[in-house]
Amino acid sequence: LNSKQILSVGPYLYSIIQEGTPNISYLSRHSVIITLAHFLLQGHISNSRSKKAADLPLVLIAPVDEQAGLSVVVGIPPFNDKTRKNFFGKAFEQTVKNTQARYLIDYWDSSLIQIKTEDRGKFLDGLMSLLI
Questions:
Q1: What are 132's strand-pairing partners?
Q2: Rounded mean pLDDT, 26-51
Q3: Average confidence score pLDDT of the chain
């Protein structure tokens, strides 16, 4: 991953880890993908020229089971959010209802969900329209 793979779409930043990435199986553990998301956000903020970057949350999507066509989605709050309140659980729930994306909630943390990899485009579009 590099910082150019983190894109801003208005109300949030997002990055997609592509299928075929070495050692992708580690991301099936929720603690690893959450840690990676925080690391990516901090790295993006330190390399970004935009002061707005620290005020935007990050959504990270990574393939978790390529044969089943599943990707894990994690949302983390903005770096400058002192309350560290994560609203992504409710936002993800509303987005899958609005877009009818196929999903699975298989984690104790509601800011992590699994979606069908082919639905990630409409999921991101639905999330953007919900958060605007």
A1: none
A2: 90
A3: 90
Give strand pairing partners of 60.
15, 74
| Residue 120 Cα distances to 54, 55, 115, angstroms | 24, 24, 7
Q: Residues with Cβ < 8 Å from 16, sequence gap 6 or more?
A: 5, 60, 61, 62, 120
Residues 6+ apart with CB under 8 A from 98: 126, 129, 130
Single-letter amino acid code for the residue at 2? N
Q: 């993800």: which residue's tokens?
A: 92
* DSSP secondary structure code for residue 22 in this structure: T
Q: Pick from 67, 113, 107: which is nearest to 88 by CA?
A: 113
DSSP state of 41: H
- What's the pTM? 0.92
Indicate the angle between helix axes 88-99 and 120-131, nearest 10 degrees: 120
Predicted local confidence at residue 25, as pLDDT: 78
For residues 2-25, one letter each, b for 16 or more C-beta atoms within 10 angstroms of the residue's C-beta and e for the rest, the string is eeeebeeeeebbbbbbeeeeeebe
> Which of 12, 5, 3, 6 has its CA nearest to residue 129?
12
Report pLDDT for 1: 67
